[in-house]
Amino acid sequence: MSTLLGPPCYTFADMSDPTHIRNFSIIAHIDHGKSTLADRVLELTHTVADRDMVEQVLDSMDIERERGITIKAQAVRVLYEADDGETYQLNLIDTPGHVDFTYEVSRSLQACEGVILVVDAAQGVEAQTVANAMMAMNADLEIIPLINKIDLPAAEPERVRHEIEEGLAIPADEAVLASGKTGEGVREALEAVIRRVPHPVGDPDAPLKALIFDSYFDTYRGVVALIRVIDGSVRKNMKVRMMATDVVTDVEEVGVRRPANLPVDELAVGEVGYLITGLKDPALVQVGDTVTLARHGATEPLPGYREVKPMVYTGLYPIDGDQYPDLRDALDKLKLNDPALVYDPESSHALGFGFRVGFLGLLHMEVIKERLEREFDLDLLATAPSVEYHVYKTNGEQVIVHSPQDMPEPGAIERVEEPYLKATVLVPPDYVGQVMELAEGRRSTFKDMQYLSVTTVEMHYETPLSELIMDFFDQLKSRTRGYASLDYEYIGYRPSNLVKLDILLAGKPVDALSFIVHREKAYARGKVLTEKLREIIPRQMFEVPIQAAIGGKILARETVRAKRKDVLAKCYGGDITRKRKLIEKQKKGKKRMKSVGAVDVPQEAFMAILKVDE
Amino acid sequence: MSKAADTVLSRDPGKLGPVSLYVHVPFCVLKCAYCDFHSQPVCDVTPEEPEYFAWAVGEAARHWAALGILDDVVSLYVGGGTPTTLGDGLGGILGNLRSIANVRPDAEVTVETNPDTSAPELAARLHDSGVTRFSVGVQSFDDDVLRLLGRCHDASAAEKAVHDLVATGARVALDLMCGVPGQSLASWRKTLERALATGAGHVSVYPLTVEEATPLARHVAAGHLPEPDLDVAAEMMECADDVLGQAGLERYEIASYAREGQRCVHNLGYWTGRPYIGLGPSASSMLPAAEFRMAAACESWADPSVVGVGRVIEHVPADAARVRFTRAADTVAFIRTAAGAPEDVAYLTADEALREDIVLGLRVAEGVTGEFAERAGVVEVLRRLERRGLVERADDRWRLTRRGWLLGNEVFVEVW
User: Fold this and answer.
1) By three-state DSSP, how is residue B77 classified?
2) N- to C-terminal Cα distance for chain B?
3) For chain B, what is the mean pLDDT?
4) Residue A256 is inside which H or E element, if any?
5) CB A130 within 8 A of CB A62
6) Contacts of residue B209 in chain A, CB cutoff 8 Å?
7) Cα–Cα distance between A371 and A377 in angstroms, integer?
8) B385 touches chain A (CB under 8 A)
9) How do residues B95-115 score in pLDDT, each as one tens digit?
């Protein structure tokens, strides 16, 4: 990492005057070019030598770079010589660009005084543009609109400027026109930051108050917190206290990220940097928490802290049961960098031992699953995603259900409540009908809609989260030819007529195939699913009935006929090697199947319930 | 009758014992719709090519003979393609091979032929020159089925051809195909009955398989033809078992039926671990690793400048016990470097070879001995399969049940 260090001889002393500090963030809808823009800033300020420039330096995880999304927030300090001849300390705080990480975005924004709001010159304002802009407004930040990708042939900066003004009520006559690709407009953007973003204001003599807006785990150093100092200052060897978790610890090191860690003597009012305490347990260093002095510290923490809560749950099972300990170790490791990840051991008759894992959202789930498979070389099977249901039993008990397996018997249930979201869809007017059709099929209640501009309609729905986590987003994209964008926020629990639908193979319920569904949709879902399973489950040596049932009541039935012939009749000189390869392939295929009772079930069967479009 | 446990591994080390010799003739009259074997219609090859090919077969045989591998040839099989497209050139090849290799006087010598290339005179001459057995690709006695398969003959021509071959005094084997789209069970039964009526003493029954890159595969992909129905094929295989069995042809392997004394010695070698040498493009061979090492050390395999289209064998893994290898499917390359290196080589450890012998041995009616299964460490697996009704144990031998004949892969996957 040391090669990523900038010119090594800078001292920050003269730039630590709060009037010469600007803390800002770049916010954008996914794919609008935020990370590329950040790279150009690093280049322009010579923070990273050109030869070391890897595309999108700030997105350091492979998966982030591949998907073009930022998952973990980063904070980089750059030194910028402005047109006024002064050198400024700019702290660029990169925020996660996806709805799953709203809370992290809001914490990152709290560390800033301003934002650059990036809008794609061709795509225009999209759902997360709106959501991010709202968050910045609520945090009372200066917003500098920037219209990006103006080098694209399809760029329409004037239309987009209009959308920003009309749709977001942000004055855009001074919007910066830029291209992250060519570097055009980047300097103008930084000048606008110097000119318009207020410098930080704090009390240098007050007790230390610093906001933890992100953290990561370093194998050698323990938990590294990224902080923004609000009041006072923090130095090596100080005794500090984390206010929410109430732990006291020594400061081992403070420093700044350029983007590699560079230790400094002190972080003072308005500065952004990292803090190493030697704490090894990430749970003790919570995003949103306030760091203060252990003795005579601040009395009130900074506002806005809350514990992150998983929204989506799924069962993760190793395909090879021997990998269970490896899966546990891998989850433990990932949790070090991702306190939002929660998991508990779970076992299934069909799939053996695994974990019920909670995620912030669907993207979070996908990213974690992919990292487990890629970085830890695990073959995993994921069961249908579920949400947290609140079940009120007739005996007055309340149970929290994360997994269909835990659902009480139908007779014992008085009512079930499920989490609802306010979903915001931005879409061109031509596709409003398609969105309505989709939303209606997903038990969503239409609230209102308004024109943001002639080309964009904003629609609001109240939607059960469980409907959204099926393949809502994929469907939305495909029905609107990719034009629609989606954002959502949690609004609370509401009662729904929900039942557990069981799938029976050869007469035996397969726990991993059960799911919770609205009663009115149970029949259709069961029918489609049994039909799909009939196609997926290969013929076995005996007939395999596939049934969908609620309690003891069968809703749908299909049959996989018994296999009568499976032999290669021709087996002479040249066929033998070919035949052996075929048998090996068949054997491998068989190994990848799960034996449920006597039935060999391919993995796709367990995936099938994720993608049932009735 | 050779026993299934007669495996290469139970032989004395360093002593090869009997081998089979196979010649692949890469010419035919017309490619059939389902065929994915290496062969070219004769109208597409230069007139000299068959002659060069005949010479190259001799060269290749000389290479193996020089290594002492052809000292005891118990069966000689000429397949293809359609060997009889070579006409009397075929007799020349056979004579040449007898002069190069030590072919036992009582060796089984089989020539594959088709109803449209086996003129009675040629057949008689071949029989006189030592051919003991003809294997005829009849496929069906139903003209509609024959048309669909792209065969060049009709049912009556096939009947006559087989009749003529039987008249030579040689043994005659028929190949029949079932599970062909559009073929009815009644048509299949009739084909079986007409096959029996010809007097042939050996019948092979193959369900049609759609091989990649054949005209048949294209028809299926385009939706002009339904995919062969496995259930129908299964029923037809059962029907063959009944009809042929009642007529006194014993099913001695998954696809093979024979009157007493007419089992194919050559094919039994494939299922019982007997080494074999294949001559010609796309021909496969199997040798114990010791003999393979000798061949690999020869200049024609080790020197990249003379290897031809094959691959240079740099070293044979130390734990290899058995080697299967195949020449490139390239006639011109074969003619150029007749004794050249194989294109495809598969090494098997002693353990893998044992398991392979079990899998192949189970194809044969007699199955494998209990002692042999024990040595291969598959007794537990076989017991499990016995409970599933796929194998049975009798007279200290493990064998497939009637159901196991049809579901062989279920067994092989477990054993392998």
Assistant:
1) strand
2) 26
3) 92
4) strand A253-257
5) no
6) 568, 570
7) 9
8) no
9) 999 999 999 999 999 999 999
Can you tell me the distance from the alpha carbon of A66 to that of A47, in angstroms, rounded to the nearest whole number? Answer: 23
Q: How many CB atoms lie within 10 A of CB A16?
A: 18
Non-local (6+) Cβ contacts of A41 within 8 A are: A47, A78, A90, A92, A186, A189, A190
Query: Exposed/middle/buried for A528, CB within 10 Å: 0-12, 13-18, 19+?
Result: middle
Place of tokens 């031992």: A353
Predicted structure pTM score: 0.66
CA distance A149 to A183: 10
- A259: preceding bond cis by omega (within 30 degrees): yes
CB contact under 8 A, B230 and A566: yes
pLDDT at A49: 61
pLDDT at res. A455:
77
Yes or no, beta carbons of A576 and B276 under 8 Å apart: no
Kind of pairing between the strands at A352-359 and A342-348: antiparallel
Dihedral over alpha carbons B303, B308, B309, B310 (to 10 degrees): -40
Determine the distance from the C-alpha atom of residue A366 to the mean position of all C-alpha atoms in its chain, rounded to a whole number: 8
Put simply, the chain A residues between 514 and 543 with a CB less than 8 A from any chain B CB are 541
Q: At CA A585, angle to CA B321 and CA B8, rounded to 5?
A: 20
Segment A374-395 shows an average pLDDT of 90
pLDDT digits (tens, 9 = 90+) for A552-578: 899 999 999 998 888 888 899 888 988
ipTM attached to this prediction: 0.86
Amino acid identity at A103: Y
Q: How far off is chain B from A573, nearest CA to CA, in Å?
A: 6
Nearest to B246 by CA among B189, B198, B325: B189
Residues A419 and A387: beta-carbon distance below 8 Å: yes
Token digits of residue B54: 């005949």
Contact B111, B76 (CB under 8 A): no
- Band of the pLDDT at A500, cuts 50, 70, 90? very high
Sheet-wide strand order for A253-257? A247-250, A239-242, A290-293, A209-218, A222-231, A272-276, A253-257, A261-264
pLDDT band at B349, cuts 50/70/90?
very high
What sign for the dihedral angle of Cα B235, B240, B241, B247? Answer: positive
CB contact B356 to A (< 8 Å): yes
Rounded CA-CA distance B4/B372 in Å is 9
Q: How large is the average pLDDT for residues B237-253?
A: 96
Q: What are the φ and ψ backbone dihedral angles of B302, each rounded to 5 degrees?
A: -100, -20
Instruction: Chain B: give the shortest CA distance to residue A316, in Å.
Output: 28
For B196, phi then psi, to 5°, come to -65, -40
Cα separation values, A36 from A89, A235, B270, Å: 21, 34, 64
Mean per-residue pLDDT of chain A: 86
CA distance A582 to A589: 10
Q: Quickly tell me which residue has 């196991």 as its tokens.
A: B404
Task: Give B-chain residues touching A577 at CB under 8 angstroms.
Answer: 284, 324, 326, 344, 346
Q: Return the closest-CA partner of residue A107 out of A338, A304, A359, A308.
A: A304
> Collapsing DSSP states into helix, strand and coil, what is residue A11?
coil
How many helices, marked H, and strands, marked E, lie in chain A? 14, 33
Structure-block tokens of residue A441: 């099929």
Residue A69 has pLDDT above 50, yes or no: no
pLDDT (tens digit, 9 = 90+) per residue, B376-386? 999 999 999 99
